[in-house]
């Protein structure tokens, strides 16, 4: 084991731009921990498995779900009980009759929209108490609970607050007392900026760290490989390590069983852990990533094996994955000699499957964050059916082939993964790639199409905003007559509509500058409560544009103005209308359609 880990770690650090990594492996009674390379931004400090702190990102959630199972194990809350009945710090929207339960939170199926704001800050002084973080900007409920998986940090953060409200003590205190202390995880902490994270040479922390979790149960853990080995042992040994029990054996079994799957052929969710089939081996895992850090936590319950790998550096993800893969190749080998699947014919509903599918993080977001998720959270999937019946999916540079095994269910031609299409009222609407959900979008919703529309419409709209005053000034200079009063009024109204667009951009930039000058978190991290006022500006512009549409219609009905004036005015108004439709689509108006 020592040689395998050492060879994989050395190779990973040589092959990738990663400064250091640490590993923990539990195999029955054997426990291996080791460190390689140097500590974060401290090249003279060697990584030690028992004391070098690493950020583990979303692997923090493993602690949150373990703690949640503790309160279940203690009879303080049932997994199927409405969490709103036990939460003191936050009231959840009652959008649907079905209540959100702890089971929904643990399987990422509560039906919340994605929420990015409030997840992190760039200065530890801005980190809020958990109760404040989860009760500010509460995400909307966009679908009934249990219907569709959608991974969010908010589910874990809310679980942390649920633990606090049920137990009567802060989340970090509960975990310290009930997990860290009995397991001997003495170097683990949810503190925002523990001393062991900053460089040993005294460099200002703000110069090297730009991410601090504002939802600590979801992403705020700092820990060591030796400490995480103790957590692995607890999960593999029925909840007890060296005589110290944190969970009953039945609670561990319950935590590891499948709680949700989109389809019986697909891997699903255990209690807070993702299922992954690797050959005949069932793995329960969770990954994590924050700037400069990448982590893998994996349990192979039937084999009595657990793995933990975390690396830091600009290519930390690649380095971490190389070591994790080397370990999984040993404990969960995959037979790569399997035959390639061939389709038996054309898929049953082939004509309904093709198109582009975008992550529900964007399609189901009703806040102004929709554009952020649309641009930066995952590439869309393009689907088409080949002549021989194979389903082809393209996501970025990745191209995969699938064959239908039952209506709307496809399996990879070489791997063991499954793809499922979902329908609503008889129409194919969603694609499920594992636990990632995508919604089918129209051609007009594609970013490339909307990008060209934005450019073309902006140019045309500016010909009115700039051209009309310029033409008026030129006529005055040449001593020409003024246009009819109706033309002037119509142009003022249309100009106000176009100006609303420009004013929105300027207002957004101005607010960003003001927020930074106030020493606050960024608009993305935590917009101030009054930020929504900014969206009033384009909304007023949209009202003016609606009035301009009325002027254009009247001009054509009454044959007013010259033909050229009517055509140009209509083009400007149409362009402004397109731009306001785009703002409405991305939830950038004060009045939103969802």
UniProtKB/TrEMBL annotation:
<feature type="domain" description="Beta-lactamase-related">
    <location>
        <begin position="7"/>
        <end position="324"/>
    </location>
</feature>
<keyword id="KW-0812">Transmembrane</keyword>
<feature type="transmembrane region" description="Helical">
    <location>
        <begin position="529"/>
        <end position="551"/>
    </location>
</feature>
<feature type="transmembrane region" description="Helical">
    <location>
        <begin position="451"/>
        <end position="471"/>
    </location>
</feature>
<dbReference type="InterPro" id="IPR012338">
    <property type="entry name" value="Beta-lactam/transpept-like"/>
</dbReference>
<feature type="region of interest" description="Disordered">
    <location>
        <begin position="334"/>
        <end position="356"/>
    </location>
</feature>
<dbReference type="InterPro" id="IPR050491">
    <property type="entry name" value="AmpC-like"/>
</dbReference>
<feature type="transmembrane region" description="Helical">
    <location>
        <begin position="492"/>
        <end position="517"/>
    </location>
</feature>
<keyword id="KW-0472">Membrane</keyword>
<feature type="compositionally biased region" description="Basic and acidic residues">
    <location>
        <begin position="341"/>
        <end position="351"/>
    </location>
</feature>
<protein>
    <submittedName>
        <fullName>Penicillin-binding protein, beta-lactamase class C</fullName>
    </submittedName>
</protein>
<dbReference type="InterPro" id="IPR001466">
    <property type="entry name" value="Beta-lactam-related"/>
</dbReference>
<keyword id="KW-1133">Transmembrane helix</keyword>
<feature type="transmembrane region" description="Helical">
    <location>
        <begin position="563"/>
        <end position="583"/>
    </location>
</feature>
<dbReference type="Pfam" id="PF00144">
    <property type="entry name" value="Beta-lactamase"/>
</dbReference>
């Amino acid at each position: 084991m020592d040689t395998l880990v050492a060879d994989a770690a050395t190779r990973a650090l040589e092959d990738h731009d990663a400064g250091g990594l640490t590993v923990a492996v539990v195999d029955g009674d054997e426990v291996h921990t080791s460190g390689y390379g140097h500590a974060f931004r401290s090249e003279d400090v060697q990584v030690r498995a028992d004391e070098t702190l690493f950020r583990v990102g979303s692997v923090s959630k493993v602690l949150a779900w373990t703690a949640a199972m503790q309160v279940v194990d203690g009879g303080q809350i049932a997994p199927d009980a409405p969490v709103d009945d036990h939460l003191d710090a936050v009231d959840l929207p009652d959008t649907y009759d079905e209540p959100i339960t702890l089971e929904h939170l643990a399987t990422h199926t509560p039906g919340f929209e994605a929420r990015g704001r409030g997840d992190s800050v760039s200065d530890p002084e801005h980190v809020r108490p958990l109760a404040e973080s989860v009760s500010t900007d509460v995400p909307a409920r966009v679908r009934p609970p249990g219907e569709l998986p959608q991974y969010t940090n908010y589910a874990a953060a809310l679980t942390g607050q649920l633990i606090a409200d049920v137990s009567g003590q802060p989340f970090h205190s509960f975990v310290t007392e009930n997990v860290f202390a009995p397991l001997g995880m003495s170097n683990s902490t949810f503190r925002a900026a523990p001393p062991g994270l900053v460089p040993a040479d005294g460099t200002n922390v703000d110069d090297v760290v730009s991410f601090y979790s504002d939802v600590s149960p979801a992403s705020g853990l700092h820990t060591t490989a030796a400490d995480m080995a103790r957590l692995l042992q607890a999960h593999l040994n029925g909840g007890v390590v060296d005589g110290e029990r944190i969970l009953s054996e039945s609670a561990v079994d319950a935590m590891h069983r499948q709680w949700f799957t989109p389809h019986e052929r697909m891997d699903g969710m255990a209690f807070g852990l993702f299922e992954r089939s690797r050959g005949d081996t069932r793995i329960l895992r969770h990954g994590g990533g924050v700037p400069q850090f990448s982590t893998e936590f994996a349990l192979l319950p039937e084999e009595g094996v657990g793995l933990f790998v975390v690396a830091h550096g600009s290519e930390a993800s690649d380095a971490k994955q190389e070591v994790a893969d080397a370990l999984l190749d040993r404990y969960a080998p995959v037979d790569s000699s399997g035959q390639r699947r061939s389709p038996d014919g054309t898929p049953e509903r082939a004509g309904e499957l093709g198109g582009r599918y975008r992550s529900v993080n964007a399609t189901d977001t009703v806040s102004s964050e929709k554009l952020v998720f649309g641009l930066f959270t995952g590439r869309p999937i393009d689907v088409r059916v080949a002549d021989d019946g194979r389903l082809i999916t393209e996501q970025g540079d990745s191209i995969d082939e699938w064959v239908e095994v039952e209506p709307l269910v496809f399996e990879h031609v070489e791997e063991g993964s499954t793809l499922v299409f979902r329908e609503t009222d008889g129409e194919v609407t969603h694609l499920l790639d594992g636990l990632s959900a995508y919604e089918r979008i129209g051609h007009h919703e594609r970013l490339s199409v909307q990008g060209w529309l934005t450019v073309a419409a902006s140019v045309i709209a500016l010909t009115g905003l700039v051209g009309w005053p310029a033409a008026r000034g030129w006529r005055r200079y040449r001593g020409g007559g003024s246009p009819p009063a109706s033309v002037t009024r119509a142009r003022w109204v249309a100009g106000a509509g176009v100006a609303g667009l420009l004013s929105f951009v300027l207002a957004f930039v101005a607010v960003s500058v003001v927020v930074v000058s106030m020493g606050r978190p960024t608009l993305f991290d935590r917009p101030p409560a009054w930020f929504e006022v900014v969206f009033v500006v384009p909304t007023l512009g949209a009202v003016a544009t609606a009035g301009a549409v009325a002027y254009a219609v009247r001009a054509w009905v009454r044959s007013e103005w010259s033909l050229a004036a009517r055509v140009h005015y209509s083009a400007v108004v149409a362009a402004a209308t397109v731009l306001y439709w785009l703002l409405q689509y991305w939830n950038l108006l004060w009045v939103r359609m969802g």
